[in-house]
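Running log. JK asked me to keep both predictions on one page so they can be read side by side. First protein, sequence followed by its tokens:
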Amino acid sequence: MKRLIFIPLLILWAQAAVAASPTIVDGDHVAAAIARNAVVWDVRPAAAYAKGHIAGAINIGDAPKVLRDENTEDFIATDRIEKILGAAGLDPHRETIVYGSRGTWNPYFGLYALQYFGGSNVRVYHDGIEDWAAAGRAISLDTAQLPPVALKLEINPTVAVTTKEMVARLNDPNVQIVDARTPQEFIGEDIRAIRGGHVPGAINIPYEQNWIDPETPAKLARKQTTSNGGMSLKGTEDLKRLYSRFDPSKETIVYCQSGARASETAGVLQQLGFTNVKVYDSSWLGYGNTLDAPANNVTFFNVGLFNSRLSALQDRLNQLEKELAEARAQK
């Protein structure tokens, strides 16, 4: 009986892999795409772009900050996005390669953004500028500019869900949910909205688990390594094992705090051949603040405790400034 179940699952994986075109590509693919006049979008902040980028790549600044409202972390008004992308010559319907720094979620946000506005020929260069430079490929300091285009963007409802749609899908056996946040966020210890906790039925797989070494950022911070090479993706078979609890043919919704980390996991699932992947863009910021939305492991943000700690921190800062001023006066 186990063998009868296992074989269809293998067939599903194989069929999905054949049907799907790659979402995540390497440097050779990027070079070939450039040769056929694809758009290359560098989503890093302008200062990083100015220090060196793939020749011909365009940049609008830190893409998530430019295209999202800083409070809700949802997309800004579509007409504003039309002007920003149009001025940069970024047409979602053109073949586009999106890249940034290796392993970061920002290029996947770019992928999601273009798919959200109708793009279907978009790829992510996961290993990014570091891999490009390490391979000895051309790095440019010149600002690239494409001819501006007039855009009339239409939202693709098949790539995202709203909070209302998320609630409506709870307990639906044809829907599976991935929580890409940290375990502490998932169990409600790390509260980043009015409530902590998670969406009922969600399975927690932090997005860093997609990498060869999920501890790389911590190691970089502790100066245990100088390379972000550990943020390269795991091999395909390892990634399939990571998501083996999920059916690639079912609707799969990914969320995190604001849709950012979720966009990377969504891109990985697309690469693995999942055929119906959606990002819950408002994610826990929207869900946790919707108090009538069912949730598990619910904890609440203690405003009084937060204000008390903030006040104590301010008092300490004031004291340090006073001591510093006195020390300067005595010199």
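And the second, directly underneath as requested:
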Amino acid sequence: MQPVQHKSGTRALWGAVLTALVALAALLGSAPASQADTTICETFGSTTIQGRYVVQNNRWGTSATQCISVTDSGFRITQADGSVPTNGAPKSYPSVYNGCHYTNCSPGTNLPARLSSIASAPTGISYSYVSGAVYDAAYDIWLDPTPRTDGVNRTEIMIWFNRVGSVQPVGSPVGSATVAGRQWQVWSGNNGGNDVLSFVAPSAIDSWNFDVMDFVRQAVSRGLAQDNWYLTSIQAGFEPWQNGAGLAVNSFSSSVNLGGGTGGGTGGSSACKVAYGTNVWQGGFTADVTVTNTGSSPVDAWKLAFTLPSGQKVTSAWGAGISPSSGAVTAGGMAYNASIAPGGQVSFGFQGTYDGAFAKPSTFSLNGTSCTTA
């Protein structure tokens, strides 16, 4: 009788197990399946994330294998074979972007957009770095006189969040600048295909939220772009020369707010007029500057960009902060005069030294918009 009892108990047990398995299968069938990361090893392979950004492998400077693992919020380099000389171009630029890159436009983007039509372009980025590699963490902003979606643009703005190894930007150093509240070493040059304006962080930045237009205005003030040019793409990634596996963009966000021009922080017209009066003596001078908002909307957090002629240097200032002390400089309002009402004015001044013949700046731009001179 024991065997019978054993078989009967086994049959009941398996029945209960089958019932549980059916219930579990039904539960799993109704639960959402987890999304596996996408691996891209193709030279120029790409995919989209969040329905709004493109992630690209972009292995253009080497024939060695490079693979990236794409997540819903960014990507990680999983294989980065080979190396190239550090005194030349990098081997690739795996990146994520908003906009258009060689006819591949991100879904729903409003780029290209005329600079004068952009009120703000807020963005955020988070990086993960590794040791045992030579690379830079590069944030790219592309500008062109036309709304082109194919090929190389006229001007490339690079923000180097980090650099490891004996690599440097295109061109040569041209001074320092405070942009978006941070200090940068500025480089300028041409790579044979386009102008490059680079801002190099003095130490690694892991993550940051900022306005892309703060850097665009720098390019305008330095004569490397104009208000009637177009912003075509905003990109974030890495330029590796040696190795690079493990480097990651953890998250990326980018939006472009149209309507109101590059000038006012609150949008609206930002036309302006500048009066620049001087008192000059041998080797020194003072300048009294009046900025008039001739537009129809307030200009908040105003910044007046202009280039001091060669040999001139600011030694002190009042009514505004001025940085750097020579070359392409930017004057910004203080807490008590940070906004210029429509039809209103703000005045500031500075003292400086000069070598050679004295001259005045030839052009001015207020928050990226060219001003007339009185």
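Observation for JK regarding the second prediction: The longest strand covers residues 230-242.
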